[in-house]
C-alpha cells in the first residue's frame, strides 16, 4: 500500500482528520467524535528514505507477536515501544492486514475517548472490555 492509499484509509475512519503538528513530513491522524471534543492520535504516516511507514497503536502482547511474525512490523519509531508499532508499507503485508492494523489502532484510541465522544461516533466497546 502506498502513501496515498494509507492516507485515504486513515481518513476513512469515522471522526478521523489529518494534522501536521510535527511538520509537513509527518501526517498525524487523529479521531474525535464532536467538533469541540478532544482528539487523539491513532496513526502517524511518514514518507522518507526508508519508504512509506505508519505508526499504529497496538495491544502490547499483540504488538510483540506481530513483530516476531512479520519483519515489516517493528517497535514504534519515536513512540512508546510497548504500545506502538511501525509498519513498513513496502513489504509483503497485504492490504487486508494493513487495514486491520489501522482499524485496531483506531478502535484502541476511540475506546480511550470520553463516553460522549464514543457515542457521537456510534462506536461500541471492544469485546472483553468493561
TrEMBL record:
The keyword Transferase does not apply. It comes from the Bacteria. It comes from Paeniglutamicibacter cryotolerans. InterPro entries: YjbR, YjbR-like_sf, YjbR/MT2646/Rv2570-like. It holds the Pfam family YjbR. This is Putative DNA-binding protein (MmcQ/YjbR family). One of its GO terms (molecular function) is DNA binding. Keywords: DNA-binding. PANTHER family: CYTOPLASMIC PROTEIN (PTHR35145:SF1), CYTOPLASMIC PROTEIN-RELATED (PTHR35145).
